[in-house]
Amino acid sequence: MFLRLQLCDLAGATQTVAAHDAARKFLHLDSESDLDMNERYFWALSFGSHPQHEIIKGEAVTVVRTVIRANGIGERTCLSVL
Known about the structure:
5 helices; mainly alpha; 82 residues
C-alpha cells in the first residue's frame, strides 16, 4: 500500500496528461475504500505551479458526477453549469 501512495505522489507531482491517465487507471474515485490514494494524488497534484487544463477540466466533471450520484441531484442540471 505504501508504494501505491508514493506512486500517487509521483503521478501528481509530474503534472502531465500521460501521468494523469496512468494514475486514473489505478485510482477509483467512486470507491470509499480508496480515499487515501485519491486524496494523496489530488494533494500532490494541487502543489503544481503549472496545471494542465485537460486534467483540471476532466477532474472537475468527475468530481461533480460523484457528488451528484452521492446526493441524488439531477445530473443534467449540474453538468450544464460546467
